[in-house]
Automatic annotation (TrEMBL):
<keyword id="KW-0949">S-adenosyl-L-methionine</keyword>
<dbReference type="InterPro" id="IPR011990">
    <property type="entry name" value="TPR-like_helical_dom_sf"/>
</dbReference>
<protein>
    <recommendedName>
        <fullName>[histone H3]-lysine(4) N-trimethyltransferase</fullName>
        <ecNumber>2.1.1.354</ecNumber>
    </recommendedName>
</protein>
<keyword id="KW-0808">Transferase</keyword>
<dbReference type="GO" id="GO:0005634">
    <property type="term" value="C:nucleus"/>
</dbReference>
<feature type="domain" description="SET">
    <location>
        <begin position="1"/>
        <end position="69"/>
    </location>
</feature>
<dbReference type="GO" id="GO:0032259">
    <property type="term" value="P:methylation"/>
</dbReference>
<dbReference type="Pfam" id="PF00856">
    <property type="entry name" value="SET"/>
</dbReference>
<dbReference type="GO" id="GO:0140999">
    <property type="term" value="F:histone H3K4 trimethyltransferase activity"/>
</dbReference>
<dbReference type="InterPro" id="IPR050869">
    <property type="entry name" value="H3K4_H4K5_MeTrfase"/>
</dbReference>
<keyword id="KW-0489">Methyltransferase</keyword>
<dbReference type="InterPro" id="IPR046341">
    <property type="entry name" value="SET_dom_sf"/>
</dbReference>
<dbReference type="InterPro" id="IPR001214">
    <property type="entry name" value="SET_dom"/>
</dbReference>
Amino acid sequence: FPLFLQVTCNCFTISNGEMQDVGVGLYPSMSLLNHSCDPNCVIIFEGYQLLLRSVREIQIGEELTISYIESLMPTSERQKQLVRQYCFECNCLLCQNQEKDSEKLAGEEHDWKEVKDAVNKVRYPKSKEEWKHILARCQNLLSSNMGRLPDTNIYQLKMLDCAMDACINLESWEEALCYGLRTLEPYRLYYPGFHPLRAVQLLRVGKLQYSQDMFPQALETLKQAYNIMKVTHGTDHSLMKTLMEIKEECEAMMRIQ
């Protein structure tokens, strides 16, 4: 049991190129890093290789920090998860100021709680039929909350992401792009500066724009993704190479036109 607890507290969630969880691993030296909800470093994976990347200038003697949890949660939820899993409370400036909590929970509570419950019940589907069921549920809630819940509400944002994923898996590219575009402003608000999640979302939207022959828009979106990803991932990362290939194809299509 003590060994299990040590693994739980020190393991890292391994993610694929699109920041989706694929497993867990132990990286002893990286376990020495402390937490901040507003960290100066991020963890990126290249296969099973863990990469530590700085996302802003670090002063001599300044401690390197990462976020142990998803920072999109409101302060109270972040604190609960940190206490439950890591047995400490965070006292960073983001937690002291409860910054952006009002935007994260904007709208009537009974509206976003229904969306929160629906999002929490979603499990990764194994068939197209399951994806269709999830998409129908997302469409119904997004339609009923139109004008009542802003896209900056974090549960509405998660619902948009879920609808986008469902459309991609069902090859409904145009509808996927509509949902993806609605996520970009909330992502910019909650992941300012250099954040891998925002870079990946921009890449996903750029790919959808490219698939719809929206080459000027795709190129602009991909440039935004590139400017973030060169810091969060580095120029040698496989995802950066994928981005560059699509960007070059986009530029070639614009020259033909």
